[in-house]
TrEMBL record:
GO terms for molecular function: sequence-specific DNA binding. InterPro entries: ArsR-like_HTH, AsnC-type_HTH_dom, Dimeric_a/b-barrel, Tscrpt_reg_AsnC-like, Tscrpt_reg_AsnC/Lrp_C, Tscrpt_reg_HTH_AsnC-type_CS, WH-like_DNA-bd_sf, WH_DNA-bd_sf. PANTHER family: LEUCINE-RESPONSIVE REGULATORY PROTEIN. It comes from the Bacteria. One of its GO terms (cellular component) is cytosol. This is AsnC family transcriptional regulator. CDD domains: HTH_ARSR. Coiled coil: none annotated. Keywords: Activator, DNA-binding, Transcription, Transcription regulation. The lineage of its organism: Bacteria, Pseudomonadati, Pseudomonadota, Alphaproteobacteria, Sphingomonadales. Residues 4-65 form the HTH asnC-type domain. Pfam families: AsnC_trans_reg, HTH_24. Signal peptide: none annotated. GO terms for biological process: alanine catabolic process; regulation of DNA-templated transcription; response to L-leucine.
Amino acid sequence: MTDFDAIDRNILHELTANARITNLALAERVGLSPSACLRRVQDLERIGVIKGYRAILDQAALGISFTAYIAVGLSRHTKSEQQDFERAIDAAPEVRECHNVTGTIEYLLRVEVKDLASYKRFHTDVLGALPQVSTLTSYIVMGSPKDERA
């Protein structure tokens, strides 16, 4: 299934907004019977369009009030250096996203920590200690007027 019709797109839109919606309510919103709606959702899950469902957490309630994006340049551009870096990042709970990008850097990270002191420790003791890293440029998030990550 590579072609999505308007109903599939509506289902995906509704589930993106509220993944806990009941099948009955979803069916009503997209104009299908509950059984037809459930079949479509299951098809979208089966083919991997819907990869999973997540809870959106209130970071402030968890004591996390500092977010930064970090542009990371590697000293060498070998596959093994990239794999070593990715393994180290995978083990760092502060890193919530890691993207391999094109341009003047190799990676873009989203880091969430308690405060500036925690960020400094992570920056110095984790990222700064990785032998693959040659440059780090931090972008501190001051606000997020639009954030649709699930």
